[in-house]
What does this fold into?
Amino acid sequence: MPDAPDTARTRQRIHALAVVCVLAVASAVIAVLGVSPARVSATEALGDERTPGDAAFIAGHRGGATAAPENTLAAVSYALSHGFDYVEVDVALTADGHPVLMHDARVDRTTDGSGPLSDLTLDEVRGLDAGGWFAPEFAGTLVPTAGEFLDLLAAEDGRAIIELKRAWDESSIAALVELIADRGLERRITLGSFDAAVLALAAAESDVVARLLILRHLPDDVVRAAQEAGVRGLIAERRAVLDRPSVVDELHAAGIRIVVYTLNDDAQWGEVTDLGVDGIVTDDPGTLADWQQANAEGR
It folds into this structure.
């Protein structure tokens, strides 16, 4: 017996609605798969796992702190132009929430100003001389914004470890991640912090950008700590690693990289290279590069 006209129309509408819903879900899945890149792997972020004696990657501490004023574009340019693997910089927030390159809580040591960075607006920070203390030829050097640093990094096709200093909230992390994404640098930036909560905020803003947990002391279950933080590697204090050399193998067995900070002479470089650490943060990347080359030639 044929359906009544109203019943037929109702079924047609239900069928059409079901088709629309299926297409909408399919479109959403396709869209997500099309625009959501895979998370950066440990190898992509920090290179292949090293073995004892292998040359570790070099990260220029605060740019190249022996060649130019730390955390300035001059220091970053030095590191990038000399082909070091990574430039490492510190980023902190001004009173009005702008990210700038600055290590210390106060501006006194590296500028001609005084007081906490968190009390100064961006305009006030940009009025400071961040180079005259280092050498006369750098007088007038500005404190860079994070955007200026990222522009230089993008132009030079460089890679960076950005340490997030002091307090960050959801909105400030989101703004920084947006600056990184706008320049297509998500796969060339690794964010680091001593604060696992800050790294969690970064993880919530980006599934792609890699992260590093920085530690002065190693927890008993260091692998679990790294896994719970969702990081690709650790940056650890040299003495902590030397006091527990097995930590390198523990982390490598779990696919986690280990970077050591801040080492500035050949005795220190030799100690950690013999353990097979993956990266070395140094104020003197040029001398470390020469040392690694000589060490390789002598093997």
